Amino acid sequence: MQAMFKGSLSDILVDFSWNSPTFEELEEKLTSFCWSAPLDAFGMIRTDRYVSAIQVKGIDPIKESQLRTVTDKSIPFMALQQEGSSTSPLGGLLNLFGESDLDQPDGILIGSALARNLNLAVGDRVQLVLPNWMDQVSQRHFMVKKIFHSGFYEDDSNRVFIQRTILSDLLNHPSGYSVVQINYKAGDQYLTLKNELSKLFPAATISTWRDRHAIKLRAVVNERKLIALVLSMIVIVASFGILAIQWSFVQEKTRDIGLLRAMGFKRKDIFSVFLGVSWIVGLLGLGLGLVGGITISTYANDLIALTGWQPFPDGIYYMDQGLPFSIEWEDALWISLLSISVTTLAGFLPALRAVKVEPIKAIAYE
């Protein structure tokens, strides 16, 4: 999920609120870093049938591709460097603009959800409408070169990529970029890099992609804590069930307990019998729970696809490629220990009551 949240961002982002360095200065100061300087903008994308608000990101395909890790290969930045394009499978449906306007359109990468909403395919023509820094509106036609799928719904539904130089011309942007993106190298530490970058750019604000998505990540952490609390309450409630059953069991077997004590059974033997019953019930429930939980988690996406039920809407949970899951064995161990501890506590009180049964009184009472 964190890989999805990262999207097209890099490990470290350097923002300049004013007096941004030129590209020549960036090249000179960042020789030992793996970096790129994209340009972000908001605008509209238009087809012959639809208009949608989007986020436009202008990139240098070569530098951006060098930054990407394995989790980001679903965004084919190098497609913007390719010549030519295939014809539209829609058979020329999107032909609002005249042929003279579409002879040499620039390339654009579009997210899969956005392409689906706008009924677009590779080779189709679109128009970008962007407000620029001169208080005017810039328009330009583009051809869909690739449709990327990052798995992060927010990117796939409203993000497009074009060449940075083209976007800079459209916006008349003074510096030509919005932020500097830098990736870690092997052995790098965030604080060390932050100190180095602070010395190079004293007026800049340095943050990570996690800072940009802090609210979403914090929501996930809070949901994990809430789920842990709910599961703990379920275990505690279940322990009261075991306690009630065992207590009734001791009440029903009072005469039998008295007979066993009269036959020479020691208190510890009686205690171990009733505590052992609690452990058997707890271990059986724990085993069924672990097997069931792992099985359901592993095949959850298959079950969702089979039933067509969508319990996690992509617009809310940011995921459009199924439910991600990770079996944390450390968490499973803590849950197991909690279950056994609560089960032991639930069986301890009834077993203690059974130990206190006096043989003569139990037989006489019965």
Verbal overview:
- This protein is α+β, with helices and mostly antiparallel strands and 366 residues long.
- The protein folds into two domains: 2-212, no CATH class; 216-365, no CATH class.
- The protein is 49% helix and 17% strand.
- The protein is built from 15 helices and ten strands.
- The strands form two sheets. The protein has a six-stranded mixed beta barrel.
- A hairpin with a 5-residue loop joins strand 6 (125-131) and strand 7.
- Helix 9 packs parallel to helix 14, helix 10 (254-262) crosses helix 15 and helix 11 packs antiparallel against helix 14.
- The longest helix has 39 residues, at 214-252.
- It is elongated.
- Mean pLDDT is 81; it is low at 84-103.
Topology summary:
Layout: H1 2-6, E1 12-15, H2 23-29, E2 34-36, E3 39-46, E4 51-59, H3 61-67, E5 106-111, H4 112-118, E6 125-131, E7 137-148, H5 153-158, E8 159-163, H6 164-171, E9 179-183, H7 190-200, E10 205-208, H8 209-212, H9 214-252, H10 254-262, H11 267-298, H12 300-307, H13 314-317, H14 329-355, H15 359-365
Parallel strand pairs: 4-8, 5-7
Antiparallel strand pairs: 1-9, 1-10, 2-9, 3-4, 3-6, 5-8, 6-7
Helix pairs in contact: 9-14, 10-15, 11-14
